[in-house]
Amino acid sequence: MRILVLGRTGYLGAHVADRLRALPGARVFDGGRSPDADFGVDLAADPPDRLAAVLAAAAPDAVVNCAGATGGDAVTLAEVNARGPALLCAALHEAAPAARLVHLGSAAEYGPGEPDSRVAEWAATRPVTPYGATKLAGTVAVTASGLDGVVLRVGNPVGPGAPVTGLPGRIAALLRGAGPDPDAVLRLGDLSAHRDFVDVRDVARAVALTVTTPGPLPPVLNIGAGRAVPVRDLVHTLAAAAGFRGRIEEEEGGSARSAQVSWQCSDITAAGEALGWRPAHGLGDMLAALWAATAAEGSGAP
Q1: Per the database record, which ranges form the NAD-dependent epimerase/dehydratase domain (predicted)?
Q2: Hey, which residues does 292 pair with through a beta bridge?
Q3: Alpha-carbon distance 24 to 7, whole Å?
């Protein structure tokens, strides 16, 4: 099986590519802007005919789109998260219409959840940020394309290699900087929001199952833990894993997104039924793995 992974250099993409390479008989190719990519692809800028030519040369049985932007202005988000999937679908129609497309969406597409409830794939989508809105546009492009496409709506990914642009990676970096100093103080914003944290390794396994499970599959599947956790619990559990001896202080305010979306939790029943998938890693496990990778990075270990 020939599998083309777009966005392999990103956090999710790196884990996904590693998991796919472990599949028996799989040949995994890297598509992206990196000079060492197997196939040069830029979903934010390529014209349709050029992308179609690249896909024809790659001749994939499956394409996994991990490319996406989580930050930046609305134009950047739209170019990568909305235009990118639409362009990819158009090019696949021309060059590889039989290939399965697995696209990574986001639970942010749902918008605010109701406390003590899980949101299923058929629920109304009410994104409140440009990120969520542009990810939803990408999902619509895939589900309306007529291709063999599946969108995996991923919760908040956590685990080894988490970038500092996200809360878990940022907290890990702060803890590494604080070290064992008992007088250290971490001043953070409001940590009362609830999030559905899912291990990045479980996300990668869900992608591998989606690539290899015979169709037809549901057009959208939630990939999360199916459990809402206070962000405060994540921070304190990670601090414990790091052996942090200082003090954590919560200050008023925080991100606008946290204020607008105080509860987020996915119903993952459909992924279990369609793929036989369930998360294998709990919060403590994923945070221990995150801290081990962070500590190794700080020590200069490979």
Answers
A1: 3-224
A2: none
A3: 22
Contact 43, 84 (CB under 8 A): yes
Buried b (16+ CB within 10 A) or exposed e, 78-113: bbbbbbbbbbbbbbbeebbeebbbbbbbbbbbbbeb
pLDDT-derived band at 256, boundaries 50, 70, 90: very low
**pLDDT, mean over the chain:** 94
Lowest mean pLDDT among 136-140, 263-267, 296-300: 296-300
**DSSP H/E element including 29:** strand 27-32
Fold of 2-161+197-226+265-280: Rossmann fold (3.40.50)
**3-class secondary structure per residue, 198-241:** EEHHHHHHHHHHHHHCCCCCCCEEEECCCCCEEHHHHHHHHHHH
pLDDT of 253 strictly over 70: no
Cα(109)–Cα(151) distance, integer angstroms: 12
Catalytic residue among 131, 197, 244, 277: 131
Active site residue 131: yes
pLDDT at 18: 97
What's the CA gap between 169 and 164, in Å, rounded? 4
User: Per-residue pLDDT averaged across 101-111, rounded?
Assistant: 98
Give burial (CB, 10 Å; 0-12/13-18/19+) of 256.
exposed
How far apart, in Å, do the first and last CA atoms of the chain sit?
31
Q: What is the CA radius of gyration of the chain?
A: 19
Q: Name the residue type at position 150.
A: V
Neighbour order of strands in the sheet with 39-40: 39-40, 27-32, 2-6, 62-65, 100-106, 148-154, 220-223
With a threshold of 0.85, does the pTM exceed it? yes
Contact between 151 and 89 under an 8 Å Cβ cutoff? The reply is: no
